[in-house]
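Late entry, cytidine-5'-monophosphate complex.
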Amino acid sequence: MKVAALIPAAGSGQRLGHGPKAFVQVAGKSLLERSVSALAPHVHEVLVALPDGTTLPEGVRARAIVGGATRQESVLRLLEATGADLVLIHDAARPFLSAATIRAVLEAVQLTGAVTVAHPLADTLLRAEGPLWGNLVERAGLWAVQTPQAGRRDWLLAAHREAQAEGHSATDDAGLLHRAGHAVRLVPGEAALFKVTTPGDLLLAEALAAVWDAQALV
Ligand code: C5P
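Prediction complete; structure with ligand written out below:
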């Protein structure tokens, strides 16, 4: 069974404000380079969707295609560009992806064909009413969805094409698999897999990178 890693990296990075987010550097390495080098040893090919008019930064060993106007469009293009049987879809914006998580996802996707990494929520949750405390939301059973999200390529392709034909937009590939009727297995993720979105996240990523990169050297 051939496995590909697909990395949508074609976002503009507007909320971060440093140009395309995938090219933003954390402790000397771009977010994209961090995601690609985490995944490359575990898969047959790595395919990246980039913003139009950009090229892969030096040192990133992957095949690049031009992404679409939304994450969903970028992922559909990536699915169409690979011939792999199984795919792991991972946001470039989540640079701290461990080998243990990748192995757990690969094991689960080979068994079930539809998987996402997700993290059980720890905070108390509430629905706000404007600026005020509204109602508490029962936390038990609530998970935050992360990536990698993985599946059989034929299932993902069908789910994405169905969503596109129906004008349904989604931020998650596993959500589209669920919508298409597949049972999606949850693989517990890690707090370190957070998505770099705001300037505050970038500071956190810089601090974490110091520890992460030192561990990689031992
Ligand atoms: O904007 P957000 O952080 O939710 O994007 C999640 C991932 O999807 C990022 O890695 C981003 O580069 C990617 N993306 C994409 N094509 C778009 C928009 C976002 O590949 N048009």
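The chain is about 35% helix and 25% strand. Will revisit in the morning.
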